[in-house]
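Collaborator request, handled under Task 6.
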Amino acid sequence: MLLNASGCLDALVAPDVARSLDAFVTKTVTPLPRDGNAPVRIAETDVGMLNSIGLANPGIDRFLTRSLPQLEKLRVSIWVSVGGFETTDYAELCSRLDDHAAVSAIELNVSCPNVEAPAESASQIVAGARLATRKPLWAKLSPAVPDIADVARAAQAAGADGLSLVNTIRGLKLDAQTLRPVLAPGHGGLSGPALKPIALAAVATCYRATRMPIVGMGGIRTGLDALEFVAAGAQHIAVGTTLFADPDAPARIRAELHALASARGWTSYEDAYGAAHEELLSLRTT
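Structure tokens returned to the collaborator:
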């Protein structure tokens, strides 16, 4: 399945791009409206992009009354990304979304680098959300932790149905003249090509630790990039930063994936699933 990374596509502004995906992931919604961080909030770097949006969004009430009905008209599967600062925030959001048939899944953003980290652990957040909804729950994790496998196992034990790997990692850009931070908040979340090796390692690590379904994301620009994530253990792929420069990327990446599979004599690119792991390869050859 091909998705967008949360915050990298406005489906109502670019509906044709959204329809080229198997599922559309919304920008993160919080209980109350948020203006986000002051500008400047986005900056290009030599190896990707920094953003410090700060979870700007209209809040859950306006999302449900205005945004969701419009998104439903696109007739594409909708995943809603939710975020907050306490376990109760996530539980409240999941409860509000639970009865909406248009919502196919909920992504728990427990790892945004542009706001203060929640006091509760990922395990507590997932457990509270699990009690509040019957929807599939995907825990979006940060690679900036001492042991991401421990966090993944905790999310799994608490009731997560899958993992989204990874969120951006904190970075800084300085103005060449003033030597001051370019972004108003100082740091921001780094996405793009530089994130790919980090994301691949996280996917591979969490695959080995949990065997959970994984949405892999981070620096994916081509079909080969996507295929590497599948080999590392991602069942699904999300495209992020590249959408800003190439809105046709989903269709192109999908075509490239099929071409790569055909060139290797595979029935589908899914034949590469887990191929980076030696123990799975040995099972296939015995």
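The cover message to the collaborator said: "The chain has a mean pLDDT of 94. Residues 2-35+53-170+197-284 form a domain with the TIM Barrel fold (CATH 3.20.20.70). Please let us know whether this matches your experimental observations."
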